[in-house]
Design brief:
alpha+beta, Beta-lactamase, six-stranded antiparallel β-sheet, three-stranded antiparallel β-sheet, 11 helices, globular
Length: 360
């Protein structure tokens, strides 16, 4: 069994801030505290006899946590294994874990907030926010790269360099014209942190706290880990973010991310990889490109076992936030890699095979 390294439209967004829509069918946990209403699988008519198999699946795949929300309420919440740092202690609801590239989708949402506030223009050249010479390109080449290209993995920068995480100008080399080639490249994504900071006058963590965490009750923060800025939080915080996206950017009655931007995030952003929106993976499409040099095309949806309308934040070693609007579901999984495969990209599909035996 392999697992998904995928850590996870309209070409022009034109996002304006709509009026918040009242939530009539979704439950939202309080901003403060640990209260979160639950539903039982039996009350929903789910197949409870298969839950023990999900427990065994967790153990066999190095999973630390699985949460399943239905209509915002917790139906399944399971923890296993040991904590990330205090490896002698059991992993619990209050334990932190890394999002890996699932944090890309969170960053996209933060960019959407800043755009709605008029602080970021997605069509503007990235050098407007990062300064000139942030790459090794000529000025003309560099000026062709926009914030939108960073959001869609289409900067044209060479992802075949020795260190794809390196954000030094010497590591950012011209490969193709922006917008003509999709390549899963961490460095241009990571530099969105600088775009956000320079556009808003706040650090990424401070802006995130003020505009998103304080309105949703999320915990966690971005921490510099090697060349990357990685988000760490509890699994319930991941579930809160998934619930926010499920409700199209509104937390209960509080608008957080413009609905139009969430729509764009979860819509194909370019033609090369139809399974990719704004730093978000999309299920149910005809094909996808693997997030590795070479851009290998797979003629299938990313997770055939999952609902076609699912969109997802996906991270290395299987950090997952799956959002299914048609069923009002949010699924979260965190943990270590389920096997030793270099690119265990079918794990999410394997997880949904187990969930489909339970969810009715």
């Amino acid at each position: 069994m392999r697992q998904l390294i995928f850590l996870m439209t309209l070409v022009a967004c034109g996002c304006s801030e709509p009026e918040p829509l009242p939530s009539t069918s979704l439950y939202f946990p309080p901003i403060a505290g640990s209260t979160w209403e639950t539903s039982t699988p039996a009350s929903l008519g789910w197949n409870t006899t298969k839950i023990a198999e999900l427990d065994a699946f967790m153990t066999s795949t190095n999973t630390r946590a699985i949460l399943v929300l239905k209509d915002g309420k917790i139906v399944i919440e399971k923890y296993a294994g040991k904590q990330l740092v205090n490896t002698t202690l059991d992993f619990t609801a209050s334990s932190n874990w890394y999002w890996a590239s699932a944090g890309k989708t969170l960053t996209a949402a933060v960019v959407g907030i800043a755009e709605a506030q008029g602080k970021i223009n997605l069509s503007a050249k990235s050098s407007d926010y990062l300064g000139t010479d942030w790459t090794s390109l000529t000025p003309a080449q560099e000026n062709n790269i926009t914030v939108r290209h960073q959001l869609t993995m289409t900067t044209g920068l060479d992802d075949g360099v020795a260190n794809r995480d390196c954000t030094d100008p010497t590591c950012l080399i011209y490969k193709d014209e922006p917008g003509t080639r999709w390549a899963y490249h961490n460095a241009p994504y990571t530099l969105l942190d600088g775009v956000i900071a320079n556009a808003t006058g706040k650090t990424l963590n401070n802006y995130l706290t003020d505009e998103l965490k304080s309105k949703t009750g999320m915990d966690g923060q971005y921490i510099q880990t090697g060349d990357n800025n990685v988000y760490y939080s509890t699994p319930r915080s991941m579930a809160r973010f998934g619930l926010l996206l499920l409700n199209k950017g509104t937390w209960d009655k509080t608008l957080v991310v413009p609905e139009t931007f969430v729509t764009v995030m979860s819509t194909p952003s370019q033609s090369m990889n139809p399974s990719y929106g704004y730093l978000t993976w999309l299920n149910g499409k005809s094909s996808y490109l693997l997030p590795a040099p070479g851009q290998l095309k797979i003629n299938d949806s990313i997770s055939p076992n999952a609902p076609a309308d699912m969109f997802a934040a996906m991270g290395k070693n299987g950090q997952l936030i799956n959002v299914v609007p048609s069923q009002q579901l949010v699924v979260v999984r965190v943990g270590d890699a389920p096997d030793t495969g270099l690119v265990p990209y079918t794990f999410q599909n394997d997880l949904w095979a187990k969930l489909n035996e339970i969810i009715k």
